[in-house]
Amino acid sequence: MPVRVLLVDDEPLVRAGLRAVLEAQPDIEVVGEAADGAAVIPLVRQVRPDVVAMDVRMPLLDGIEATRALLRTVADPPKILVVTTFENDEYVYEALRAGADGFLLKRARPAEIVHAVRLIAEGESLLFPASVRRLAARYGDGGGDRAARAESTRARLTEREGEVLRLMARGLSNAEIAARLVVGTETVKSHVSAVLAKLGARDRTQAVITAYESGFVAPG
């Protein structure tokens, strides 16, 4: 089955460019478009995309609030790929904190756009881990006693789960983590599921954000 994508951006040329790039791929289908985040929820319910590629800055409802609303109101929500002009943007980090699964620069090359959509849809690796780390270092002060929060995160995880979370933060896929730890891929999937459950994270991006903000993993 192709990856079903919904495009949300207030610039028609951006939507047209993304559509042209994505629809050139046999395994990706653009199933709808919207010009503002306010239209996301009804469209998601109508076309049931696997991935929503959404601008972070829009005039009525921006990508941050649209992400929050989508995750709050839609059962089994799609993956959310934030599309942005600027990489080191606090809006991008806030979107990730709100529940977005990754971000893509509008100036990205066609191959990078396709890779981002596929990777987000698969959900087994972190998109642009170095960029997420830089954003966390710049904007990710969760407040309070970082040492205490790091210890709290550590206490919730087994030693192996903590090791898996650190490797997730470095951007390793399940297969790469399995090779590094010399275990089976299914074992890694079980560890990842346990980490997400214990941290209350929707996916690995959210788990990594939690790891950075708690101080369990240093973002610098």
TrEMBL record:
InterPro entries: CheY-like_superfamily (IPR011006), NreC/VraR/RcsB-like_REC (IPR058245), Sig_transdc_resp-reg_C-effctor (IPR016032), Sig_transdc_resp-reg_receiver (IPR001789), Tscrpt_reg_LuxR_C (IPR000792), WalR-like (IPR039420). Residues 4-121 form the Response regulatory domain. Keywords: DNA-binding, Phosphoprotein, Transcription, Transcription regulation. Residues 150-215 form the HTH luxR-type domain. It holds the Pfam family Response_reg. It comes from the Bacteria. The modification 4-aspartylphosphate is found at D55. Transmembrane segments: none annotated. SMART domains: HTH_LUXR (SM00421), REC (SM00448). PANTHER family: TRANSCRIPTIONAL REGULATORY PROTEIN NARL-RELATED, TWO-COMPONENT RESPONSE REGULATOR. This is LuxR family transcriptional regulator. It comes from Streptomyces ambofaciens. The lineage of its organism: Bacteria, Bacillati, Actinomycetota, Actinomycetes, Kitasatosporales.
